[in-house]
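[Discussion] Sanity-checking designs against the backbone

I'm trying to build intuition for which residues belong where. Below is a structure token string of 882 positions. I'd appreciate it if someone posts a full sequence so I can compare it with mine line by line.
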């Protein structure tokens, strides 16, 4: 029998003897068989015998203990047990009571702890309604994404978007039993507890994929047993409420993958510049390797460590039979293959910043950075690239014109390790025509080596010939930070070629607006956003010089002057409270009697001052404010020739009034904003005002076109055979240079100067320093509109592509009969009165009215028909501004 009913006289001795016998028998059984099958059966029989021997020994010990208990606590007589040896009923009762009390306390403590850890747990309904922070994306007019805002860089996608190779990689390394377990893997938990006890620390994790999800969604990353208990409780709830596919989708959109990216879609876009559905096996394995330690295994910071971790994932997939050996070997041999996405908002950064400010003002920071909005902006990325290149090339041309100045910063002198040096603009892609600050690594006979990021490029004497330095030792040293332009991207196997440029601190800005809509098409606030985030297009108020004169002449024409009127350009003194003021022309001469048109085209100062004095400088300043100028302008006479500080944004918005037949549409950046569910956000319509009458606008157009035809900007008229108008601007000591000009469809303004307001140099006028940048941009902006024309005398008023807001009082008026559609100048009665177009609630959007063609009949490039802002000549006469 296996278990003997009688206890052995010496159980320990018998058990040892039996075990020794069993062991000897086991060894003999193992040595006897010669074949494989015989050895296997022998081993099995040996194991059975060893187990039997150990059970016999355990049974012997049990009987011995029972016998000892009987001898100590019971009186054994011939008839059986007769009662305890010691009569201690009170002690027994007390012991029983204390035992039950302890058990009750233990049970209560467990219940209490469970309540404590569950009372603050989020309700599972919160997870059903859970919407993670997602990225707000900015779209240009062509529907292309060019910027984003995010507290957490995340793009949520459905389960079907995650390819099988990625799902297999994640489960292979994170939770092999995900499809089978109930959220808590007991085997892994026991193993982890064993490792923790033997390492005297919580060294081994046991989190399943669902537990990781619970922790990432609701709990902290602090490693405590209480947090682990909460994690398990949440996991059980999640598993009960959601399917495995839903859990995986939540996890794959939530997990952190380093460098500010959350979720595998955002990770795929960041690390490989592709969608998650397009990942290859090595790429999927690398992403699956990151959740364990996004920073520790970062392929950017620690590529070798990331490579080993990736290959571990591939090996796990092979063991799970998700891939073949050939696939595994090929994937392990592949490089990391990173294709890092350009930093967010690297394109049009100044425009993006303006959009951010407006969105946060209207909708709040949390909504903008976490609600996953789709913002459809007015930016044209094609024109934006042209604008940025125009500003960079224009400032570089100015720098070359003034020769090499030196004054380079040196990294070595600043005690910076050259191998560790990184310049802020190195995050941009290296493409032809781009400009970078580069680090001089070597100065050798006939060449200079410079580094941009990880790429080292060579410059030779022709690349710095413009500096007129005979040798590189005259002006370049190891550690210098030089400014270079990428001349070519290089052939296969060769790096880019760069030429030396200069960054002495001169800055430039540009802004372009669609005349008929007020939409900002392009904006450049400086040479390098990485170096300076100050937006010189919207934040910098600079003296505008002669570009202020259109407000003077508009005041004169509104008060009855004509372009053909004669004015004398001669010596004059004006009496002011501070004494006599005797101005001079820029050229230093006088031309005598001349028409207002010629005086304006040639930018003569004396005629402008005489007009301002005749009609009053206060009226001139009021006129500038009507045009949208927001600066505080002092009422003294030199303001008439540009002694006023105004932003480029205000100037460009003001100049759109002239080609718009007197109507100003506030420049704006956003067309519409959509929520993540496709619903539109409340819309804010641009402010639309009537600034000057149709007649005044048409006469001013005559003056502004003369500037380009035979005035200070004649170079533009000669180079660009297209209807153009505008005005140059130059300030005293040549501290600022401007050109604001327009075609029938686009108005663009440029400025160049130093932030420190130092002089640009002798003869650096608006026509010389600013106009070339404007020309580079406008050549592209008007390329698709070769047949557009300005409206001629007697032509109907231009129709603009915006809804016209109306005042609340107008909405309460009874409806009037519709205007006669056969009369292109007829307007509803409510729109005829008043000097401007009043503000109105956002929901009012009048019906669009077809536009009469401003260009020759049949021309496909003329201004497109659009909704309203229409005014008859009679209405203009009723306007106090007309």
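Best answer:
Here's mine. Compare freely.
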């Amino acid at each position: 029998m296996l278990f003997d009913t009688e206890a052995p006289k010496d159980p320990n001795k018998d058990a040892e003897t039996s075990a020794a016998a069993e062991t000897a028998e086991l060894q003999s059984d193992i040595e006897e068989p010669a074949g494989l099958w015989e050895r296997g059966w022998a081993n099995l029989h040996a194991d059975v015998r060893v187990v039997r021997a150990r059970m016999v020994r355990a049974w012997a010990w049990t009987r011995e203990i029972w016998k000892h208990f009987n001898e100590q606590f019971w009186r054994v007589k011939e008839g059986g047990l007769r009662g305890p040896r010691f009569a201690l009923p009170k002690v027994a009762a007390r012991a029983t009571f204390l035992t039950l009390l302890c058990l009750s306390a233990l049970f209560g403590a467990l219940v209490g702890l469970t309540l404590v850890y569950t009372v603050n747990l989020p309700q599972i309904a919160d997870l059903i309604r859970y919407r993670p922070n997602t990225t707000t994306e900015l779209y240009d007019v062509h529907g292309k994404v060019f910027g984003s805002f995010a507290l957490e860089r995340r793009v949520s996608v459905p389960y079907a978007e995650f390819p099988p190779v990625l799902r297999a990689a994640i489960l292979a390394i994170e939770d092999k039993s995900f499809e089978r377990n109930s959220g808590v893997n007991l085997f892994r938990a026991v193993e982890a507890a064993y490792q923790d006890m033997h390492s005297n620390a919580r060294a081994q994790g046991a989190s399943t994929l669902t537990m990781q999800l619970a922790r990432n969604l609701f709990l902290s990353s602090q490693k405590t047993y209480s947090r682990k208990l909460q994690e398990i409780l949440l996991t059980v709830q999640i598993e009960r409420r959601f399917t495995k596919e839903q859990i995986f989708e939540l996890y794959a959109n939530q997990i952190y993958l380093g460098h500010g990216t959350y979720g595998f879609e955002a990770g795929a876009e960041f690390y490989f510049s592709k969608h998650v559905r397009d990942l290859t096996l090595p790429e999927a394995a690398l992403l699956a390797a990151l959740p364990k330690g996004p920073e520790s295994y970062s392929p950017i910071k620690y590529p070798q460590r990331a490579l080993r971790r990736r290959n571990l994932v591939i090996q796990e997939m092979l063991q799970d039979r998700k891939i073949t050996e050939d696939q595994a070997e090929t994937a392990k041999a592949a490089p990391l293959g990173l294709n890092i996405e350009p930093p967010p908002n690297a394109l049009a950064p100044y425009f993006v910043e303006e959009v951010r400010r407006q969105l946060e003002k209207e909708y709040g920071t949390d909504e903008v950075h976490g609600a996953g909005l789709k913002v459809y902006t007015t930016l044209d990325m094609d024109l934006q690239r042209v604008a940025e290149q125009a500003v960079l090339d224009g400032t570089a041309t100015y720098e070359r014109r003034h020769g090499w100045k030196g004054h380079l910063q040196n990294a070595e002198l600043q005690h910076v390790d050259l191998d560790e040096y990184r310049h802020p603009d190195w995050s941009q892609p290296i493409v032809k025509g781009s400009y970078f600050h580069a680090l001089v690594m070597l100065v050798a006979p006939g060449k200079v080596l410079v580094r941009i990021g990880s790429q080292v490029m060579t410059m030779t004497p022709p690349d710095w010939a413009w500096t007129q330095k005979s040798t590189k030792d005259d002006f370049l040293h190891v550690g210098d930070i030089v400014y270079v332009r990428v001349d070519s991207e290089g052939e296969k196997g060769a790096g880019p070629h760069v030429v030396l440029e200069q960054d002495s601190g001169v800055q430039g800005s540009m802004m372009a607006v669609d005349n008929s809509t007020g939409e900002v098409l392009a904006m450049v606030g400086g040479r390098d956003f990485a170096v300076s985030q100050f937006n010189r297009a919207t934040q910098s108020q600079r003296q505008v010089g002669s570009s202020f004169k259109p407000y003077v002449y508009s005041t004169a024409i509104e008060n009855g002057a004509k372009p053909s009127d004669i004015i004398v350009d001669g010596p004059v003194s004006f009496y002011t409270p501070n004494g006599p003021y005797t101005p001079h022309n820029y050229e230093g001469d006088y031309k005598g009697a001349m028409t207002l048109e010629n005086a304006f085209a040639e930018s003569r100062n004396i005629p402008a001052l005489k007009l301002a004095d005749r009609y009053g400088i206060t009226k001139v300043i009021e006129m500038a404010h009507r045009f949208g100028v927001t600066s505080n302008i002092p009422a003294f006479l030199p303001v008439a020739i540009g002694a006023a500080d105004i932003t480029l944004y205000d100037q460009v918005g003001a100049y759109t009034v002239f080609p718009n037949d007197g109507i100003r549409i506030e420049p704006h950046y956003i067309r519409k904003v959509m929520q993540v569910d496709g619903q539109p956000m409340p819309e804010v319509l641009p402010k639309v005002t009537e600034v000057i009458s149709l007649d005044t606008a048409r006469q001013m157009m005559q003056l502004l076109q003369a500037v380009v035809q035979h005035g200070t900007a004649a170079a533009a008229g000669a180079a660009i055979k297209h209807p153009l108008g505008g005005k140059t601007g130059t300030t005293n000591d040549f501290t600022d240079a401007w050109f604001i000009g327009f075609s029938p469809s686009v108005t663009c303004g440029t400025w160049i100067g130093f932030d420190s307001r130092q002089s640009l140099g002798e003869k650096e006028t608006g026509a010389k320093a600013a106009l070339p940048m404007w020309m580079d941009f406008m050549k592209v902006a008007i390329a698709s509109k070769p047949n557009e024309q300005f409206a001629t005398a007697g032509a109907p008023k231009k129709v603009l592509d915006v809804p016209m807001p109306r005042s609340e009082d107008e909405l309460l008026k009874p409806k009037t009969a519709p205007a006669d559609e056969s009369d292109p100048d007829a307007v509803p009665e409510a729109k005829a009165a008043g000097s401007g177009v009043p503000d109105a609630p956002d929901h009012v959007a009048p019906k669009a009215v077809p536009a009469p063609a401003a260009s020759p009949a049949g021309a496909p490039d003329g201004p497109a028909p659009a909704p309203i802002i229409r005014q008859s000549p009679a209405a203009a006469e009723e306007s106090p501004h007309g």
